[in-house]
Amino acid sequence: MSPELLWYVPNTVEPGHRGDDTTDGWGGTLLGTGWGRPDTFTVATAPAARTTTFKPLIAVRPGYWQPAHFAATAATLDQLSRGRVLVNILSGLDNLAAYGDGRSDPAQRYERTREFMRLVRRLWTEEDVTFDGEHFQVSGSTVAPRPYRTDTRAHPTLSFGGASEAAERVSAAGADVQLFWGEPLAGLAERSDRPRELSNQVDRRLKPLRFGLRITTVVRDTTEEAWRAAEERVARMASGPGDELTWTGNRKTAVGQQRLYGLAARGEVLDTCLYTTPGKFGGGGAATTWLVRSAADVATALDNYRKLGITHFVLSDTPCKQEIIRVGDQLLPRLR
After folding, report:
1. Which one of 58, 77, 223, 236 counts the least CB within 10 Å of its CB?
2. What pTM did the predictor assign?
3. How far apart are CA 35 and CA 96, in angstroms?
4. pLDDT in tens, 133-147
5. Reduced to 3 states, what is the DSSP secondary structure of residue 320?
């Protein structure tokens, strides 16, 4: 089965990202979310309306969205796009005060996310839903229209990420896809085993959990060119404030982020081409570790992740427009 291949669009107000055209081959893009950025659903609607196969992976946060509002919005766009909506649910902190979210305690936020996913699934598939949870309540709620249904899917796929035990339990209970950041193969093999075990503990009643990789890829015609480009970029990061990610909330102290920061102590390059140095100079999240080599070598590295059971890939690099063309031309044909 062909892997799901998506690009990442930062979805910021700075020019040079939104409205970039993509080359043939990409399944769609992950649209980043955060207060102060353009609304992800509005941005997702524009390319969905102008294309026939493009799939927007829309990042959303419980707390910013109420489950019923979200379920109706996502189902409407899913109908209009004939089943192309994908969803990435985030529990991490944002600028909570700006939109009135008072839940900063991690345990509460993860439990709220679990409720959110459970209730949204019911709203997408049942009539007259009544739900009285700790965080959300609805009475006699029916979403219209329903998501676009096919033989292979009843509603949009729900992705979720997180490395803490609480996050893994949420994935095991309610996600369709658990997203990982770029770690060595051995680390991801271990991490993908745990949710499988947790699925039994949390009484999962869904299809088996699938796994995705969200990572930065630096590819060039040759390995030497790729490393030169990567090292030049890290040198620019080291000479000034890191610009790979605008930090919000608790991302610097999150379990998954600390795992990535700890990789640098094990070596500058792990496996064949996982570059750990960017995290020392401002790189965070998926920009903490990069896959750096020729397109052929990076394709082999991604195929090694696929052999671990990774079926969904969200790739990125900056500048966004320039690199989506390069990666689309050089890397995607090798992956397909």
Report:
1. 236
2. 0.90
3. 8
4. 999 999 999 999 999
5. helix
